[in-house]
Amino acid sequence: MKLTGNTILLTGGTSGIGRALAEALHDRGNRVIVTGRRQALLDEMANTRPGLVGLKVDVDDAASLAQLSAQMRERFPQLNVLIANAGISRTEDMVLDDWTATDAEAIVQTNILGVLRVAAAILPLLKGKPNAAFLATSSALAFVPRADFPTYCASKAFLHSWLQSLRHQMRAFPIEVLELSPPYVQTGLTGAHQLDDPRAMPLPDYLAEVLRLLENGETPRGEVLLERDLPRRWAERDGGYDAMFAVMNPA
Predict the structure, then answer these.
(1) Residue 222: what pLDDT?
(2) Where does the record place the Ketoreductase domain (predicted)?
(3) CA separation for the pair 173, 49 (Å, rounded)
(4) Which residues are within 8 A (CB) of 19 and not within 5 positions of it... i.e. 6 or more apart?
(5) Which residues are catalytic?
(6) Are 70 and 125 in contact (CB under 8 A)?
(7) Partner of 26 for a Cys bridge, out of 32, 41, 61, 248, CB 3.0 to 4.6 A?
(8) How far, in whole angstroms, is CA 155 from its chain's centroid?
(9) Is the dihedral of CA 88, 89, 94, 96 positive or negative?
């Protein structure tokens, strides 16, 4: 993926990895349009980095995405990169008698359907553009799940599979299709405790490694995956899946 001179649309970019990536790409001379649900944070980002555009968009709302597509066509016809980053994560305890599918449905709505809706709305605009790329945020948990986050992990496994098919179908245009698979990173994804959890990778360190991999084209199979996560990526192939699952999910 070319890291300069692009017009980039990034969804879910007001916090965490999305915000860090949006700001880093803006600092590299790209025109960056960030979407999110919180107008105050969008305004803050735009005020901090002149030229960065913030648009309030709800990826769970088909009408909101139709409006976004129209805005991109009218205001940013040079758009050549889409980063589908919006996502949510929640624990679920299915042992409880009062467990419901409410959280699971919300995760599927945002993490799966949200990505599909964004892709359907924006991918047609990328066709024929120079250095076109589509990047979606998955997770290293797509390969070996945390059992207390069942639907979140499953949603990322869905994206891992779906992106392979998209990559194959887009080969003739061409649009580079990339899968960003973060490990446990210091963000607020699962709550405030994660921001300074010593077990999590510092966000600046993760961002620096991602940018290095993208810049050097070190994305085999279209996967943006840290070397530290390769054992998890290949656990089933290499016969270590059961042991790794046990470590990640102690009895």
Answers:
(1) 97
(2) 6-180
(3) 33
(4) 13, 34, 45
(5) 152
(6) no
(7) 32
(8) 12
(9) negative
Q: Is 61 exposed, middle or buried (0-12, 13-18, 19+ CB in 10 A)?
A: middle
Write out the two tokens for 74: 């009218």
Distance CA 64, CA 15 (A): 20
pTM flag (> 0.90): yes
| DSSP, residue by residue, 55-96 | EE--TT-HHHHHHHHHHHHHH-TT--EEEE---------TTS
Given a cut of 90, is residue 46 above it in pLDDT? yes
Task: Classify domain 7-248 by CATH number.
Answer: 3.40.50.720
**What is the distance, to the nearest Å, from the Cα of residue 157 to the centroid of all Cα atoms in its chain?**
13
> What are the sequence ranges of the domains in the chain?
7-248
Instruction: Identify the burial level of 98 via C-beta atoms within 10 angstroms of its C-beta, where 0-12 means exposed, 13-18 middle and 19 or more buried.
Output: exposed
